[in-house]
């Protein structure tokens, strides 16, 4: 009898804990639902994800995985729904690859991080617009400008979202390509963020007068040794990868050999690299706000093309 009571109490308590997490989740992310049916569907997915997160973190506690998960603003979405939000597009043309450092006798340290050097601008939030490509390009340009001039410049992602044309494989909030965005920044340039602030929706292209142009871009060969050399000696790299596993990422080094290497659907900025407990990693700036992951950043395994990270590493050359 006593045991039964205890069990009932435990079940009630567990349900309440999940409901409380749900209430907190809705509050934290300002999510509301039009009706109870819709909310029930979302709550079920959230509960399923919560179970998976707990199972994953148990593996972490047992030392079987190298990263932890948590509830994020995406936890009410199914894996397929989350994947559908990731709209990065690879541009197949104009892909001359080169490593300008080849042939130099380089010193490449074992660890290096532009964030520690104060050369990375603040984490931004692309919100529910498939504009990761614009955020990766602008983050790279802002960092390279800071490295070159020791001055902070904040540039407009919205300008790229509204104005980068289809001929460059740019589709506003429906995705875009890194190379296409560089081409637009070479040809036309982008406004300052303060002159053309982010709205998170695709709008009519506005013509601004004060525009920041780049000279060219460099696309690296597909290998992580080139990436390491260039991060340490040139600056952060805009890269693409498959980000399906980032839905509930919390901390640690993302390492999963099942992550596809040829289905890149997100773009981000590699700002540094290091080694922890004999695992080499990249340190990466994301554009999902500073509440996500490690204050807006994540780490991912380095050296085995995890999630296709070596496919398209590139950086801008400034005037
Ligand atoms: C509940 O909301 C969903 C999504 O907005 C909608 O598709 C559905 O028709 C609504 N159902 C009712 C009963 O109002
Ligand atoms: C390259 O650098 C290393 C270490 O700085 C030095 O020992 C070596 O002699 C250099 N090689 C050449 C060809 O300059
Ligand atoms: C670069 O800027 C920072 C912050 O404004 C300043 O503290 C630092 O002294 C500057 N460094 C150089 C080399 O001018
Ligand atoms: C912006 O400039 C382009 C090219 O000069 C022109 O075609 C377009 O009409 C202009 N748009 C607006 C809103 O003024």
UniProtKB/TrEMBL annotation:
Gene3D superfamilies: Cysteine proteinases. Coiled coil: none annotated. Keywords: Disulfide bond, Signal. Pfam families: Inhibitor_I29, Peptidase_C1. CDD domains: Peptidase_C1A. Residues 108-317 form the Peptidase C1A papain C-terminal domain. Residues 22-82 form the Cathepsin propeptide inhibitor domain. Residues 1-17 form the signal peptide. Belongs to the peptidase C1 family. This is Ervatamin-C-like. It comes from Sitophilus oryzae.
């Amino acid at each position: 009898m006593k045991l039964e009571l205890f069990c009932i109490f435990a079940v009630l308590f567990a349900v309440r804990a999940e409901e409380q997490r749900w209430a907190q989740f809705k509050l934290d992310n300002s999510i509301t639902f039009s009706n109870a049916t819709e909310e029930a569907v979302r709550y079920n997915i959230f509960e399923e994800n919560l179970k998976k997160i707990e199972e994953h973190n148990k593996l972490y506690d047992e030392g079987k995985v190298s990263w932890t998960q948590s509830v994020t603003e995406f936890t009410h979405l199914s894996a397929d729904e989350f994947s559908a939000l990731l709209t990065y597009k690879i541009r197949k043309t104009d892909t001359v690859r080169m490593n300008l450092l080849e042939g130099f006798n380089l010193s490449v340290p074992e660890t290096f991080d532009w964030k520690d050097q104060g050369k990375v601008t603040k984490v931004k939030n692309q919100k529910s617009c498939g504009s990761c490509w614009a955020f990766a390009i602008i983050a790279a340009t802002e960092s390279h400008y800071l490295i070159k001039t020791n001055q902070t410049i904040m540039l407009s992602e919205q300008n790229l979202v509204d104005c980068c044309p289809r001929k460059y494989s740019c589709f506003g909030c429906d995705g875009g390509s890194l190379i296409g965005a560089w081409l637009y920044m070479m040809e036309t340039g982008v406004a300052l963020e303060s002159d053309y602030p982010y709205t998170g929706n695709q709008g009519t292209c506005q013509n601004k007068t004060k525009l920041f142009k780049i000279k060219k871009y460099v696309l690296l060969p597909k290998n992580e040794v080139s990436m390491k050399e260039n991060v340490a000696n040139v600056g952060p790299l805009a890269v693409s990868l498959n980000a399906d596993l980032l839905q509930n990422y919390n901390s640690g080094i993302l390492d999963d050999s099942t992550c596809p290497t040829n289905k890149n659907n997100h773009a981000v900025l590699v700002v540094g690299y290091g080694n922890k407990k004999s695992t080499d990693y990249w340190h990466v700036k994301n554009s999902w706000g500073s509440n996500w992951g490690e204050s807006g950043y994540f780490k991912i395994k380095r050296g085995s093309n995890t999630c296709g990270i070596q496919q398209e590493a590139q950086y801008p050359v400034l005037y």
